[in-house]
Amino acid sequence: MQDPGKTKITLSVIIVTKNESQNITACIGSVPFASEILVLDSGSTDDTVAQARAAGATVHSTDWPGYGLQQLRGIQMAKSDWVLSLDADERISAELAAELLAAISNPKADGYRLPRSSSFCGQFMRAGGWVPDYTLRLVKREAAGFSDHFLHAHMTVDGTRADLANPIIHYSYRNLDDVLEKLNRYSRGSAVDLLEQGVRSNLSKALLKGFSAFARTYILRRGFMDGQMGLVLAIFNAETTYYKYLRLHLRRDTP
After folding, report:
1. Which of 23, 107, 136, 174 gives 20 to 30 Å between its CA and that of 120?
2. For residue 119, what is the DSSP state?
3. Is the dihedral of CA 176, 180, 181, 185 positive or negative?
4. E strands, 65-208, where?
5. Do the Cβ atoms of 221 and 127 come closer than 8 Å?
6. pLDDT tens, 46-91?
7. Residue extent(s) of CATH 3.90.550.10 domains in the chain
């Protein structure tokens, strides 16, 4: 029972979406403990918005300024003491939910990194750089921010950080079509970020970076431990990196 003399600590969950009908209901359903759930949707043409509202979320339809700026909008809209950033293809387990609530009830830091357990074409990966994959996701609202990178934006905290133990469950690449779509989208977005940073590239650099990404994933980070899918993941990382630097070299694609 809540102590009548103690103010209840509140939590806002922020989810950025576009055409996430296969994910959004399960994602929202995994955070029933949240004080509010904010979905920022940028032009879904499926029933993502209807599903999100039916699941109890507050939906805001917006333009697309980039992932980081969209998340920052959510932080600014949030009304709770703490904010939790989730992607639609992520789920919070009962064990992680209990840990999250304990962390905000008796905070030892201003922000918390959460590990992720991610699947690749139906297999949860154990190596290849995907474990433990810590990412800052839970932050006091007044201390929370987001970088403005076009693709690889990340949450920030103005204060101290600590780590939680239980992972976010991440259904990141459901099938080969999903892999190929993200290869194209991620290589394009990453090239935009590199271009804005003033990075230059050429064909030789693209080839070398792609080869290095394969070696790092499959050998240095022991991707071979995941068997066949470990090899597929290493090839995917190599191709994404190669096309990122090739796009940067050619400078013909736009986001």
Report:
1. 136
2. E
3. positive
4. 82-87, 90-91, 111-114, 116-120, 123-124, 135-140, 144-146, 155-157, 161-163, 168-173
5. yes
6. 999 999 999 999 999 999 988 889 999 999 999 999 999 999 999 9
7. 11-172
Encoded tokens for 214: 């394969």
Exposure letters 143-178 (e unless 16+ CB within 10 A, then b): bbbbbebbbebebbbeeeeeebebbbbbbbbeeeee
Considering only CA atoms, which of 61, 57, 66, 65 is closest in space to residue 25? 57
Helix ranges (DSSP H) in 151-226 = 176-196, 203-215
CATH superfamily of 11-172: Spore Coat Polysaccharide Biosynthesis Protein SpsA; Chain A (3.90.550.10)
Contacts of 1 (CB under 8 A, 6+ apart): none
Strand 144-146, strand 155-157: pairing: antiparallel
pTM of model > 0.85:
yes
Q: Give the span between the Cα atoms of 123 and 106, in whole angstroms.
A: 35
Spatial separation of the C-alpha atoms in residues 173 and 170, rounded to whole Å: 9
Q: Is the dihedral of CA 165, 170, 176, 181 positive or negative?
A: negative
